[in-house]
Specification:
Layout (H helix, E strand, L loop, with lengths): L4 H13 L2 H8 L3 H15 L4 E4 L2 E4 L1 H26 L6 E7 L1 H18 L3 E7 L13 E6 L7 E8 L1 E6 L10 E4 L7 H7 L7 E5 L5 H6 L5 E4 H4 L5 E3 L9 E7 L7 H14 L3 H4 L17
Parallel strand pairs: 3-4, 3-5, 8-9
Antiparallel strand pairs: 1-2, 5-12, 6-12, 7-10, 7-11
Helix pairs in contact: 1-2, 1-4, 2-3
Length: 302
């Protein structure tokens, strides 16, 4: 039986997701369609590709072989795409960029607007995701990430530092033992949760979020004080700083791509554009201000 490429993609998606519904959503098809296609494929091959358990779909040896073949085929297709992208002389085509929500909303949108003005033949595809996408598979061409350790398999440059400080509402004083808001343990490997835990007892954490999104709004609403990115919070009229930049939360702002894409005209154009756009913003990103008098949570100043 000759197996179409789409069937390899289906089997790989089911193996990665462990269930039909999320695999179908990933591929943009209905779960019933995925079910029928898998049943027809197994019948045509005369072999079961998955064991159906209560916990999900587990590949059989035949299924594992097909998943491995799909990975090799996808890598070859991605390699071909990268080679073709390298041959363009004028920036054009689709440029797929990934960034977490905070950076996409507060930093990237104006940059993308000006990039489009310079290169109207480039069509932008922005993937807002907190997860690191696989640039080797062309899930994205360029990644903008705030991190301390960029992946070894990617290349790029550190554009700036990203500073975080403790903020409270602009009106009123936090007092000696303030309430806090904090991302939970699942965000950034627990970095923020540990930072707050070192400064407040569990009962003083009034709100936990499963994302950094919403932190500024929670602090501005008076729910509690919290660590916020300086480049966002310093511009927020309802917030004021209570500390200087916190070394425990400092990260770098990295612009990353796959090594095979460095020579792509549109990728290179965006890397250069982003670096030029970020340069004048470094002072704000790194939390450097002319006035450095902050009120600490205990009411003292520094």
């Amino acid at each position: 039986m000759a197996v179409a490429w789409d069937e390899f993609r289906l089997v790989r998606a089911i193996a990665e997701r462990g269930a039909l519904a999320p695999a179908a959503a990933q591929l943009g098809i209905n779960p019933s369609t995925a079910f029928r296609r898998l049943a027809a494929l197994e019948a045509g091959l005369g072999a079961r590709l998955f064991e159906r358990h209560r916990a999900g779909y587990v590949p059989t040896p035949a299924g594992e072989a097909m998943v491995a073949a799909a990975a090799r085929m996808e890598e070859e297709a991605a390699r071909f795409d990268r080679e073709v992208a390298d041959r363009a002389s004028v920036p054009s085509g689709v440029l797929r960029i990934t960034a977490p929500a905070g950076l996409a909303i507060d930093l990237l949108m104006p940059m993308l607007a000006r990039f489009r003005g310079l290169y109207p033949r480039v069509r932008l595809d922005l993937v807002v995701s907190e997860e690191a996408l696989n640039l080797s598979r062309r899930d994205a061409d360029v990644a903008l990430r705030a991190t301390r350790e960029p992946p070894d398999n990617l290349v790029g440059r550190r554009l700036s530092g990203v500073a975080w400080a403790v903020y409270g509402p602009a009106a009123g004083s936090p007092g000696a033992d303030p309430l806090w808001v904090s991302p939970d343990e699942g965000v950034a490997g627990g970095l923020f949760a540990r930072f707050v835990a070192a400064r407040a007892a569990p009962e003083r954490v009034a709100l936990r979020l499963n994302s950094v999104q919403g932190l500024c709004e929670a602090v501005a609403a008076g729910i509690g004080i919290g660590a916020l990115p300086c480049y966002v919070a310093d511009r927020h009229p309802a917030l004021r700083r209570l500390s200087g930049p916190e070394p425990d939360l400092a990260v770098g702002l990295w612009l990353l791509t796959h090594p095979d894409l460095r020579r792509s005209v549109r990728v290179r154009a965006f890397l250069e554009h982003a670096a030029a756009e970020i340069a004048p913003l470094r002072a704000a990103l790194e939390g450097r201000r002319a006035e450095r008098c902050f009120e600490h949570p205990d009411g003292a100043t520094a």
